[in-house]
Amino acid sequence: MPPTPAEIAFQRHVELIAAGDREAWLANFAEDAVVEDPVGPSPLDPTGKGHRGRAAIGDFWDRVIGPCAVRFAIDRCYACGDEIANVGTIYNTLPGSDSEIGAEGVFVYRVDAAGKIVSLKAYWDFEATMAGASLPG
């Protein structure tokens, strides 16, 4: 079977992060998209309401994705309708560090009729992930 629009959007998401292409990555989102990474309040999103719209999502890139080395290790994918749920670990290496932080979780992407991401919900535990990290300092 051919990949679903959600599978295509997720794969593009991963490829554009690896390429460091901020503008193309942002264009993969609908204008009014919401990114909740992680879902709920955290230092990355103190209100827990998510990053809404491309400007806020671009700021998220500038603070969390762009300066770091991010890679995905997805164990299982479940594509249903206009969504895909990915189970696995997203690794992040912070600038000036050789150690990776691994966030195990479920990462859910929903797309619109044009194949643009309208919702990204990353279910992972910020505190547990950071507690297991060995950070420079």
The CATH architecture comes to Roll
Task: Output the radius of gyration.
Answer: 14 Å
- Which structural category fits the helices and strands? alpha+beta
The H-and-E topology, N to C, reads as: HHEEHEEEEH
Count of distinct strands: 6
CATH class: Alpha Beta
- The CATH topology is Nuclear Transport Factor 2, Chain: A
Question: Topology, pairings included?
Answer:
Blueprint: H1 5-19, H2 22-27, E1 29-36, E2 51-52, H3 53-65, E3 69-80, E4 83-93, E5 100-111, E6 117-123, H4 126-131
Parallel strand pairs: 1-6
Antiparallel strand pairs: 1-2, 3-4, 4-5, 5-6
What would a concise description of this structure say?
The protein is of the alpha+beta class and 137 residues long.
Question: What does it look like?
Answer:
The chain is of the alpha+beta class and 137 residues long. It has helices at 5-19, 22-27, 53-65, 126-131, and strands spanning 29-36, 51-52, 69-80, 83-93, 100-111, 117-123. It has one domain (5-131): Nuclear Transport Factor 2, Chain: A. It has a 6-stranded mixed β-sheet with strand order 2-1-6-5-4-3. It starts with a helix and ends in a 6-residue tail after the last helix. 19% of the residues are buried.
